[in-house]
Amino acid sequence: MMASETPLSDVRFLTVAEVATIMRVSKMTVYRLVHSGELEAIRVGRSFRVPEQAVNQYLRAAFVGTV
To answer: Where would you find the membrane-spanning parts of this chain (predicted)?
Structure first.
């Protein structure tokens, strides 16, 4: 689990818009990944925050999956 790797106080949380920019996809795509469980996120009020590490893990897994 991600929380065991990094103290929560050190986790950098990204907005959906920031994740979309990093991944070069639409915000809708990010929401789909979050809702499907493919991308880890926490809910803050009505919005989501995605741990930066979760984005890195998702992208790494995506690269491995295409080889």
So the answer is: none
